[in-house]
Automatic annotation (TrEMBL):
Organism: Natrialba asiatica (strain ATCC 700177 / DSM 12278 / JCM 9576 / FERM P-10747 / NBRC 102637 / 172P1)
Domain of life: Archaea
InterPro entries cross-referenced by the UniProt entry: Gar1/Naf1_Cbf5-bd_sf, Transl_B-barrel_sf
Protein name in UniProt: H/ACA RNA-protein complex component Gar1
Lineage of the organism: Archaea, Methanobacteriati, Methanobacteriota, Stenosarchaea group, Halobacteria
Length: 87
């Protein structure tokens, strides 16, 4: 499980996350896996319950924002301040 970011606000029925900073490469030249910042990634809360899916990635490349569309059973305002994860 990988931390993808923290929900900073809600807008137009979406949870907006500030993604965790990622490095594009490591000291030995290997490229770090950035799949958690891709559209279609499943977002989970800290209890491993599925919250929704990433539908947009925007903003600065080094620390983008992610828009997550919530599942029907998720109360969107309760996500603000929560950390979300990806498998």
């Amino acid at each position: 499980m990988k931390r993808i970011g923290t929900v900073v606000r809600t807008s137009q029925g979406l949870a907006v996350l500030r993604a965790d900073a990622t490095e594009n490469s490591t000291d030995d030249g290997a490229v770090e896996d950035e799949r958690s910042h891709r559209i279609g990634t499943t977002a989970l809360d800290d209890s491993l319950a599925e919250v929704g899916r990433v539908v947009d990635v925007f903003g600065p490349v080094d620390q983008p924002y992610l828009a997550v569309t919530p599942n029907d059973d998720v109360h969107l305002p309760s996500l603000v301040g929560s950390t979300l994860y990806a498998r």
